[in-house]
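2024-03-11 09:14:02 INFO receiving multi-entity request
2024-03-11 09:14:02 INFO entity count = two
2024-03-11 09:14:03 INFO echoing inputs for audit
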Amino acid sequence: AQSVAQPEDQVNVAEGNPLTVKCTYSVSGNPYLFWYVQYPNRGLQFLLKYITGDNLVKGSYGFEAEFNKSQTSFHLKKPPALVSDSALYFCAVRDSPPSNTGKLIFGQGTTLQVKP
Amino acid sequence: DTGVSQNPRHKITKRGQNVTFRCDPISEHNRLYWYRQTLGQGPEFLTYFQNEAQLEKSRLLSDRFSAERPKGSFSTLEIQRTEQGDSAMYLCASSLDILAGGMDEQFFGPGTRLTVL
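2024-03-11 09:21:47 INFO inference complete, emitting structure
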């Protein structure tokens, strides 16, 4: 069965420093991986995805993620963090064949706190 | 705004009552999903529609839950005889599948927060 794990409940970083939010995955077949962000009282917003190709994926709002097949990881990164990046971040994997629904399987989320 | 909309945004009900939520997806999207999110957890898949056909239901979706997507446009999720354990955020998402020219990214609505007293 597909699954993702986010080993950190919370990540704290000072504004201007680089941030990393960790995600590891377990899939059968090729992984389709996603990062979403959730602000309070709002729905999830898509940040970026990895389907195939370059292992470094660039997404919205200056975020990027690095796909590492040998370590089965897909860590989210941002070179300088901003206070406005403080939110709840979810890693997700797309369900793979034989299921063709495209449903997402989410990690439990990581709260990012960027302090001024 | 042409994003996914959900109504109501909040619903408070007493145990045993029925509730119905509505989701309006992005107009050209043929795929529609319902997820449930409880505090401190990631969203969990409930059910999926391809156009008007409901093609998959999670085991989380008990007999008290029913979802429809008439005409392949908006969708409703009904919970009958609500229980306190149904309290959660119910999220709707839509996408346009690759075969229809989309990128298959799911766009989420703001959610309906249900509180069962």
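2024-03-11 09:21:48 INFO post-check: The longest strand of chain B covers residues 88-95.
2024-03-11 09:21:48 INFO post-check: The mean pLDDT of chain B is 93.
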